[in-house]
């Protein structure tokens, strides 16, 4: 049996077989960028006016009387200032007219009709105006051919905006793994079936598929009975067709817990079986080589008790599947916990903010089969194995699922 930190380290060494794919810009949200994105033109691409008002040449202007020559709207081609002492009315987003270098906003100007001419007068002290104000200079943010986004970053709406602005309609991203979620067990029926008194509906598959969906990863769902022939035949095929396999159930000490043995027979190399933790002690993990790829097929055989399944998925599997190192969150315990066994204890907990501090109330429920208890919780507090009493105010790690 290995400790939780070791199990985590072992799994993080691996990646599923890496491939890239091209997707429509909007479908790239949440994915990992597999190409670098360069600026096709300067940012902004022209001297962009930043305030509605008047534009003029700063040098030699008479703030008390400035002739308004015309208006330059956003989206119009660039206009030209004729008289260096005059101005052009200007709108935010317009290109700065040639001959102008400074913009004063409408709030600081009065424009009057005098003898059929429009005359602007600046109403604030001229010392408050600076040369070039309210002009977002061409190339002041980024310059053409500069790299805007490096390959390897995760795409959020901010990156989508940058890519849209350089005209990227399709984006090269790292392909999501092909994931199989497999429930095992003779006692399980699908949710469409009314269970007999000795049966239960399978909930683990739906829990895992839903968790993957939040990362835009689609999973194919399977149910296999506790029959060595069925397991062998189906797992052979599933292993061929998928990069990541998430099994639940059949990994403990039961007479029909065949999963580890059959995976080994199918060439999945065991990395470990059993982790010194509660829940999820019987967790099994292995890998299978893939030809011409550094990545490996990753097989997570999760213990069947739903809280164990979910903890092992959140703590160990999701970071590699989503290729996202979890943010290390720490919380302060708001309730004391006693836990005797020499195991890392992942206790379900609800978190809330108080005075800028994140507090966690452990909701231990009635154990690793009590998955309804998770609906009150946001994640698991990670309580180290070295201690048996965890006091109020103690700072511990938090594995978040909500
Ligand atoms: N003699 C021992 N017995 C058990 C040990 C042990 O160390 N020695 N470990 C216990 C622990 S801890 C766990 S966790 C479970 C893990 O068991 P398995 O991985 O073999 O899972 P199953 O036996 O197939 O099922 C356990 C439990 O979970 C329910 N289950 C399974 N799949 C689903 C599903 N898809 N949806 C909902 N519920 C599911 C299943 O009906 C069982 O009740 O073993 C202990 N035993
Ligand atoms: O891992 Mo088991 O979940 O302790 O019941
Ligand atoms: Mg079992």
TrEMBL record:
Keyword Metal-binding set for record: yes
Catalytic activity: adenylyl-molybdopterin + molybdate = Mo-molybdopterin + AMP + H(+)
Source organism, top-level taxon: Bacteria
EC number of this enzyme: 2.10.1.1
Classification via SMART domains: MoCF_biosynth
Residues covered by the MoaB/Mog domain: 180-323
Cofactor: Mg(2+)
Top EC class of this enzyme: transferase
Pathway info: Cofactor biosynthesis; molybdopterin biosynthesis
InterPro entries in UniProt: MoaB/Mog-like_dom_sf, MoaB/Mog_dom, MoCF_biosynth_CS, MoeA-like, MoeA_C_domain_IV, MoeA_C_domain_IV_sf, MoeA_linker/N, MoeA_linker/N_sf
Keywords associated with the record: Magnesium, Metal-binding, Molybdenum, Molybdenum cofactor biosynthesis, Transferase
UniProt cross-references to Pfam families, sorted A to Z: MoCF_biosynth, MoeA_C, MoeA_N
Entry similarity comment: Belongs to the MoeA family.
Role played: Catalyzes the insertion of molybdate into adenylated molybdopterin with the concomitant release of AMP.
Descriptive protein name: Molybdopterin molybdenumtransferase
Organism: Flectobacillus rivi
Lineage of the organism: Bacteria, Pseudomonadati, Bacteroidota, Cytophagia, Cytophagales
